[in-house]
Amino acid sequence: MKVCLFDIDGTLVLTGGAGMYAFAETFAEDFGVAEISREVPFAGCSDRGIAGNLFLAHGIENSEANWDRFRAGYVARITDHVRRCDGLVLPGVFELIDRLEALGDVHLGLLTGNVAAAAEVKLKHYRLWDRFAFGGFGDDHPDRNDIAMTAVARARERHGGQSDVERIVVIGDTPNDIRCARAVGALAVAAPTGHTPAEVLAAAGPDLLVETLEDADGIVAFLAD
């Protein structure tokens, strides 16, 4: 069994900042924070981790109750922002997925910091949600490494608890995607299609660095090797 896990934002799609706008609106309307801190990073981080860091930055208790309150407000707002923002499916995504599915022995999943409901909203909007059967999400854990472990466990559960995964590949656009691949013994494919320059990704040591996911030949050969 081979498993290929995709990040969402900056890897599969660009949403025109929909998630950040929904974050800001939720903090403004539900927590009274007029402007969220720009010191808290978003790229490569989980929604739960980002929310927790914003709670701390703005003197709000980082509690389960506040997380539940934030998640409910964020999920209620994300659909509208995804529809209004100018986003796109990144070049090569549909072809790469088609090519991987055609191999027959590759199981496609998600490894994302998005909470599951937001991931579904984003990918349904761009007609990608049904291409992935399982995943690890940002409401599973705040840490991307733990999310990766959950994604791999779900892949095994879907296939009778198989432990003999021949190869796991994580495809993403940030150093955090590369790090969480390492946490589960996976190979890392990186593409500078989000906001991280190619030289920064190269320094993080991916197993394969491509310019875009239009390099389907290279990625398929890497996975099948």
Automatic annotation (TrEMBL):
GO molecular function list: phosphoglycolate phosphatase activity
Catalytic EC class: hydrolase
Taxonomy, superkingdom: Bacteria
Pfam families named in the record: HAD
Keywords assigned by UniProt, alphabetized: Hydrolase
Keyword Hydrolase: yes
Protein name: Phosphoglycolate phosphatase
Taxonomic source organism: Botrimarina colliarenosi
Gene responsible for this protein: gph_2
